[in-house]
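From the shared-data thread, chain only:
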Amino acid sequence: MSNTTLGGHLYYVTFIDDHSRKTWLYLLKTKDEVFEKFMEFRSEVEILTERKKRTLRFNNGGEYTSKEMISYCKETGIKRELIVPYNLEQNGVAKRKNRTIEERIRNMFDKNIPKFLWREATVIALYIQNRSTHRILDNMTQKEAFIGKKPCVDHL
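Structure, as tokens:
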């Protein structure tokens, strides 16, 4: 996204659970915040699941291949899988998820919503997506597949 949000964010990073497709989104002012957000994500997921993350699949972006990230993964026993560039089969889930998020944001902008509200549009799109059924999950929601119980959607 090229427009800065009200909070001064220019980017976002998503982390996706491969089994459930549940997605976490973290806003970034600069790309060098990815490592900090990864640690936040890891802590949140390990508390929720009471299990350690063992394998992570990354693209070859500098934010994922930094000495800091490599060292942290080694120290914590996390296996890093770097995908081959331009190989959709290895990173198809993430590519498709990010494309879906972008399409939903664009649809909102087609309705003349100001572009600086992309953060709000992204959070809303992902919130709904995590609570929507998915055919790959046998029509369970992504959140349900991750935590094991149906999310409440009465407020929607």
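The beta strands are 11-16, 23-28, 55-58, 79-82, 133-134, 140-141.
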